[in-house]
Amino acid sequence: MASLLPTSKHTLKPPPLEDIATKLQSALANNYRHSSVTATECPDLRHAPFHLATQGLSGNECIADVGGQANLFPTPRLECKYSLLDVAKAMEMDPEGGSLVGAGAGPFHVVGQNCELAPNLSWKGSFDNVENRTYVAKIAKDSGEAMVSRCSSTDCALMVNLFGSSGMPGPVLKITARGRKGKEGSLPECIRTALHAAYGDSQPVSLGGVFLVKSGKARYHIMPDFPSAPFENRDDVEKWLTYHTFAAPTICLTVMHSADPGLGLRMEHTHCFASDGQNAGGHYHNDVESDLSD
User: Fold this and answer.
1) Within the chain, what is the greatest distance between any pair of CA atoms?
2) InterPro entries of this UniProt entry (predicted)?
3) pLDDT (tens digit, 9 = 90+) per residue, 88-103?
4) Torsion on CA atoms 167, 220, 173, 165, rounded to nearest 10
């Protein structure tokens, strides 16, 4: 496994959820015909329709940005393999209990090829006692079709963005959005842009959690297996990716930042999966036609 060192730590001073909800209202109303945002108690996310490995998203909240796109371009750095549990330890998370959700590149060394990862796991009592509901999305080498399935590994590769918490019940932002009328097709980007407009560069706000594409369709990409030759330019990466439009429902795990405090953060990263056995998911780009809710 690649070393997680060196690491940088930045302490945030987030505003109250009620204040964030107020700041988001106008941006959502401008982009969707019907929207709402409130600070409310979190439902039990272990159950349908969320299917997370933890009850809530509260307690010792923290976010990690590991690796990055430089590990993919111009040549994939196959030595960059990470343990999600080692990342949790580097995040100074409690071994007695916690959870991780987010988006990253899958453990190619376990799956047998490059893939997209939707980390979704928790632990209790120790880091050895893990409940893993993680999914991977890959492109079948023989047919070129998208395949989405559970993944028992707790590894990742190249890059990953994670939201960590104690997994306890507590207050969360509940966001609903339906009938897009504005230009912003990505719900996370709509939220992130509104937060930056409200708080600027001087007060970064980071969010993580889950939202649902409840109906309609959305656009995703799935990385195929690694290319045989280095990428010559960024356009080659775009041409290499496979793009898909999948029908709802999908469960989307997201991490976002309103501003970068000089750490070189990936500003938003969202990976999704279908829990009903459908081969739908991957890296979320935008809705095509959708009914979105948090």
Assistant:
1) 51
2) C11orf54_DUF1907
3) 999 999 999 999 999 9
4) 20
